[in-house]
Amino acid sequence: MNKHLPVFVVAFLLTACAEPLPENKLHYAGDWQSKEMALLILEDGSVAYKRLKDGATTSVNGPLKEFIGDDFVVGVSFLTTAFDVSEPPHEEKGVWRMTVDDVQLTKVNE
């Protein structure tokens, strides 16, 4: 039996649970970066997050479950992570910015 099969099954189930971003939240889609954080949000609702803080790395990969105002929740069932968006995506002098969990992110050009 393939020892990687459980990983593929879990990955498939997580992405199968993703729903596309709502029309009014499409501006969240993109590759958002800072020195200590990377946040990838796809239009299909998939999210990949990685943050380095205090010498430790935290990462979350999963479907975007819901928006609560400007904030959003990623995960399935009770295994979720909430992201606090204090500044939603906005354009400043041709550069897209967003502040998530007190970190200012810049959208990487596609």
Folded structure, characterized:
Helices cover 11% and strands 55% of the residues. With 110 residues, it is mainly beta. The protein has a single domain (5-107), classed as Lipocalin, CATH 2.40.128. A nine-stranded antiparallel beta sheet has the order 6-5-4-3-2-1-9-8-7, with helices on one face. Strand 1 and strand 2 (37-41) form a beta hairpin.
Short description:
This protein is mostly beta strands and 110 residues long. Helices cover 11% and strands 55% of the residues.
Tag the structure with descriptive keywords:
110 residues; mainly beta; Lipocalin
* Cα Rg: 15 Å
What is the makeup of the main sheet?
9 strands, antiparallel
Count of DSSP-assigned helices: 1
Secondary structure: number of strands: 9
What's the N-to-C terminus distance? 40 Å
Helix share bin: 10-25%
Integer count of domains: 1
Per CATH, which architecture? Beta Barrel
So what's the CATH class? Mainly Beta
CATH topology title? Lipocalin
Mean pLDDT: 88
Order of helices and strands: HEEEEEEEEE
Shape: globular
Strand order of the largest sheet: 6-5-4-3-2-1-9-8-7
Structural class: mainly beta
The fraction of residues assigned to DSSP E strands is over 45%
* Poorly predicted tracts of residues: none
Provide the fold topology:
Blueprint: H1 5-16, E1 30-33, E2 37-41, E3 46-53, E4 56-68, E5 71-76, E6 79-83, E7 85-92, E8 95-100, E9 103-107
Antiparallel strand pairs: 1-2, 1-9, 2-3, 3-4, 4-5, 5-6, 7-8, 8-9
